[in-house]
């Protein structure tokens, strides 16, 4: 049986990339809800409907575990999804805890970059409240990065000016760690590094999610010796055209070049 990965678009590929590192012989089903991307700017009720429709589809494919490789979808639906399905469901959330632990001793702030919907959700605010005892966590929505990623626009000469504009009102020297709270954002790690000073850490929860997936499958004795095959679906339709498949494989290669983000998870 395959491991399912779900996202509104191609952001979840950054989490799948980490899973391939830790579980290279598993077979995967990756579902991108490209008809409805981006989720982060849409009403919560509408997004929940999209999520449940997609997971129903994936469950019918016979997956043994599901990774909600989308911070927005995790924040608004993961608890209810776990009530409905009997296979393990892993979400991903901003890596606020390791960021705070790293910055408290440095007298630096933490900046969480995410979508509007993720930052508005009670789940995110509860996470910050439980960890940020010295009021050092700040946040900023960057929806434009999701749009860039979905257009396969990764050129630094386009992305860096956008980042400088959105971050222009902040004193960037105040921050010790930047948390990438959207799975689309690791594609832009190099551009983000160009905006912040050299000593700033940039972290994501993707590695922790991949490690947790491996632990869960090992505990359930469900590690398979597969072929590392990946089936791609876009909003319920199997991707078979060579150009799209080539683009997806190119994304995995690009992530190899970028390297893995550090995380305390």
UniProtKB/TrEMBL annotation:
Residues engaged in binding substrate: 7-8, 39-40, 71-72, 183-184
Swiss-Prot/TrEMBL catalytic activity: L-glutamate = D-glutamate
Pathway, per record: Cell wall biogenesis; peptidoglycan biosynthesis
Keywords associated with the record: Cell shape, Cell wall biogenesis/degradation, Isomerase, Peptidoglycan synthesis
Highest rank taxon of the organism: Bacteria
Active site: 70, 182
Pfam families named in the record: Asp_Glu_race
GO biological process terms, semicolon-separated: cell wall organization; peptidoglycan biosynthetic process; regulation of cell shape
EC number, as in UniProt: 5.1.1.3
GO molecular function, one term: glutamate racemase activity
Enzyme class (EC, first level): isomerase
InterPro entries named in the record: Asp/Glu/hydantoin_racemase (IPR015942), Asp/Glu_race (IPR001920), Asp/Glu_racemase_AS_1 (IPR018187), Glu_race (IPR004391)
N-terminal signal peptide: none
Record-linked PANTHER family: GLUTAMATE RACEMASE
General function of this protein: Provides the (R)-glutamate required for cell wall biosynthesis.
UniProt family annotation: Belongs to the aspartate/glutamate racemases family.
Protein name in the entry: Glutamate racemase
Source organism of this protein record: Bacillus salipaludis
């Amino acid at each position: 049986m395959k491991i399912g990965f779900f996202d509104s678009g191609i952001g979840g590929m950054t989490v799948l990339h980490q899973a391939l590192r830790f579980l290279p012989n598993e077979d995967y089903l990756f579902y991108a809800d490209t008809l409805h991307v981006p989720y982060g700017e849409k009403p919560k009720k509408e997004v929940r409907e999209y999520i449940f429709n997609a997971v129903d589809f994936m469950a019918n494919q016979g997956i043994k575990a599901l990774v909600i490789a989308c911070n927005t979808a995790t924040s608004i639906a993961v608890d209810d999804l776990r009530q409905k399905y009997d296979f393990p469901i892993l979400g991903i959330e901003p890596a606020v805890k390791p960021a705070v632990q790293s910055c408290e001793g440095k007298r630096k702030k933490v900046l969480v970059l995410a979508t509007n919907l993720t930052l508005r959700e009670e789940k995110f605010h509860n996470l910050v409240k439980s960890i940020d005892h010295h009021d050092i966590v700040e946040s900023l929505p960057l929806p434009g990065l999701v749009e860039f990623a979905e257009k396969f626009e990764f050129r630094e000469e386009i992305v860096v000016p956008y980042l400088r504009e959105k971050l222009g009102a902040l004193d960037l020297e105040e921050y010790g760690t930047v948390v990438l709270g959207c799975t689309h954002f690791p594609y832009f790690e190099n551009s983000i590094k160009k905006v912040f000073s050299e000593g700033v850490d940039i972290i994501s929860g993707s590695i922790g999610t991949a490690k947790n997936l491996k632990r869960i499958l090992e505990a359930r004795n469900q590690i398979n010796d597969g072929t590392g095959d990946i089936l791609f679906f876009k909003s319920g339709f199997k991707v078979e055209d060579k150009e799209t498949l080539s683009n997806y494989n190119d994304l995995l290669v690009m992530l190899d070049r970028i390297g893995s983000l550090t995380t305390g998870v």
